[in-house]
What does this fold into?
Amino acid sequence: MTRAEMLDLFTPIYDEFAMLKFNAPGNAHMVCFDEIEDPTKDYITNNMSGLGEWQAVDEDSDTGLDHFIIGYEKTNTQQKYRKYFYVSFEVNEQMEYAELKRKIVRAEALGSGGKTAVLKQTAAKLYNGFTVAGLDGYYTFYDSHPKNPEETGTTYDNLLSGAFSHDALETAEAQIAANHFDMDGDPIALAEKPILLYPPALKGPVSRVLAERAGERPGTTLRDINIYAGAYIPVESVYLSAAMGGSDTAWYIIYPGTKMLKLVWAQKPQFASWIDNLKHRYYFDGWEHFLVAISDWRFGFASTGL
It folds into this structure.
């Protein structure tokens, strides 16, 4: 067999290692997103109200007719992401077993890049929520979201304030209780623990406030019970940091059970490799189609930390 034919036999191994690298642990904030598959070009996000509280009516009356309120609709378009490279025949002329190892390293690099694209886009959807308009025309994290398109006089506030601390979290919970209502004005009750999402710079404060062994309120001389021990699922993500375009001070309280943060796959990562005998090259290719969308601001609350 020729050296080129031997190398070609490794392509299934290459593709396998590329996919393994993509699926490797370390997805961090991805736990906040509802992942679904939809092969269509566009994905429309919207919400619909319920029918609200039942009202008192008189006997033999047709009073009580109501209608569903349609939320803020948005069409999201799938985006393709791709990376490929080649090496010449000459690079691999000394064919040894070590070549397989080098091939796996290149596969890991390609698979890792696909995951990075997903992590950066999903993180950006969160940290841009302080500056980019959402479905209702206001920032995703804002102090005056309309109740629904028909009742704009009633507003809700999901923009928290202050640097992360025990007291800031206590204030945040009071604000959430006063503002986490659906389009009908009913409280949103979720069974699962909320996620406390933060950049690496806040690891110390978050660890102290949520410490499982903390029997007392941290940072004080008072012997108060630490009510937040085990109350949240802490999730740290470097992709939210200032170094990645986000912030080292912002923190987020996310309710993934609402399924309002969407990662929509039109095509999950694909990998291919082939030989170009005309140019004497070995090609390695990876691509994916996905979009990130928010269907409603009620998935969470956040503070810039300033």
Summary: The helical segments are 3-9, 11-22, 98-127, 166-179, 203-210. The chain has one domain: 3-44+73-303.
